[in-house]
Amino acid sequence: MTFHPRPSAGEPRPWAFPAPDRSVLTNGLTLLRCHRPGRQVIAVEVNVAARLDVEPEGLDGVANVMARALCEGTDRHSAEEFAAELERCGANAEAHANSFGVRLTLEVPVSRLARALGLLAEALRAPAFADAVVDRLVRNRLDEIPYELADPQRRATRALAAALFAPDDRMSRPRQGTGETVARIDSAAVRAFYEAHVRPATATAVVVGDLTGIDLDAVLADTLGTWTGNTTAALPARPTALPVKVDDTGRVVIVDRPGAVQTQLLIGAVGSDRHGPGWAAQVLGAYCLGGSLTSRLDRVLREEKGYTYGVRTFTQVLRSDPGGGGLALATISGSVDTSATGPALADIRTLLLDLSAHGLGETERDAAVENLVGVAPLRFETSSSIAGTLADQAEQDLPDDYQKQLYERLGAVDAAAAGAAVARLFSLERLVTVLVGDASRIGEQVRGLGLGDVQVLHGG
Fold this sequence. Notes:
Layout: E1 21-24, E2 30-35, E3 41-49, H1 62-70, H2 79-88, E4 92-98, E5 101-109, H3 113-125, H4 131-150, H5 152-164, H6 179-182, H7 187-197, E6 203-209, H8 216-222, E7 251-256, E8 262-271, H9 279-290, H10 296-304, E9 311-319, E10 327-337, H11 341-358, H12 362-374, H13 376-379, H14 383-395, H15 402-412, H16 415-425, E11 432-437, H17 439-446, E12 453-457
Parallel strand pairs: 2-6, 7-11, 7-12
Antiparallel strand pairs: 1-2, 3-5, 3-6, 4-5, 8-10, 8-11, 9-10
Helix pairs in contact: 1-4, 1-7, 9-12, 9-15, 9-16, 10-11, 11-16, 11-17
């Protein structure tokens, strides 16, 4: 029998997150292009700066409906024709609104790039916003809301936002609006928002993929370069980063779900955004706490106690400000058996106290760096992953080489700094704990745990 030699690993090659080339088109659109040889699917992201707090009063959700309507017909194609044209390109296009503005995404084979960019430009330049289309999107959104309220995780997210932020702050209310506000949206409101905020001078386009042999400047001139926006209205002023009223007094909010057999846990803390000097240490510490199957939370609550299928930490930037007014929400999220609600929270409290007292070990710090930095080349193998990260950087006013800098900083953070950062972030006296479950069974379990006052919300 002949045995073939076992393949051996090659020499590791140096890797860094790719830096884009930045330019500005004649219409004022900022362009970030990133040539990635071999990536035959081109990813395009377009950010239009329009924070949610610029939505008119009483029309929460209009930005999201407008975003959905952008690819639902233009001055040249009906909604059905537009979808058919995209399909002929082998392309996929989507649009949504987030905390920072409107985001359009496009993925297309490199051979169909010009044609697909023409459709994207058409959607931005001359969306139809037909009454029937907007009415359908509004009805769709109204139909989604009851399902979201029935989902324990989404219900917990809503309750946490309402608990942390003042009612008059846009961040306290659902990003896509409530039933009351969405019902007021019509095609006139959608068009008014579009004309006030959607224009190339306040937008950034990201193009990532194999650009070999493509005259991208010429393609863009004929497509996105033809987009001018509403030139008769004044350019919208950049919203001022007003101080956010945060009530992060440690307490427990129970959203009552009689008969629930599980409790959804969502523990929230407010910290600085990516511009903060301690971001890298915070990211590393949060990963050690609850970023993987081997993290502290999973090791105790899942492996040792069997309370849950998994508990994770997440961080979401809500407002970005180079001047220091940014804001990020860090959470601990998971679900446990109803009878284990109190014991699980007690164990989380013990873990956080131990973290504050003794910090992190070098072994878990090294494992976190290996997972966050070592696997980055695999994470950014596709054009879409790179384009999405570059678009995030652009909308958060971060430098083009931010991701590269972040990986370098993560590698330099020691265990002591990471432990101190996550302990500060999840300080017990500043944690708001939301529990979605049967209040009659979990109320007494959580009282006396040292998590603050307990409030019960009924009818949720």
